[in-house]
Amino acid sequence: MHLAHYLGLLHRSQLDLAKAFRQVATDHREEPDVFHECHLLASQCEDHAERLKPFVERYGEDAPDEPDRLHGELFSGTRRGPLALLRDLHDLYLMAAECDVSWTMIGQAAQGARDQALLDTVHRCEGETAIQQQWVLTRMKQAAPQALVVAS
Questions:
Q1: Is the pTM of the predicted complex or chain greater than 0.70?
Q2: Domains, the chain, with CATH or none
């Protein structure tokens, strides 16, 4: 059963996304909404990873290094300058999209396996991940005019 691969992928992706949210919060602490919202979303990601544990025990966990590579490529250091916040938010969005796709695949597997508990977890966490993506996208739209047009 290859569900273990996606459970490992998602578990690691959620932890890496939590780490990235906290890094963005720290790097952009002068933006109060970003600081507080990123900490809240990081906690949510950690909760998602925790909610996966019973299913990891049931189905196993293959721990691919793909999410770590994505995090390492996107967040290789603190950015400076007018584009920094926009680029960091863009990277958060890509990482959240990785989680979203993984939730969808695991949801399909849960349906196939007739695992209602896993399906319930997917529905809850997948919805929260969609809200995370929407917040990041909205914040990117807010930051884009300043970063792309006004800033030099």
A1: yes
A2: 3-150 (1.20.1260.10)
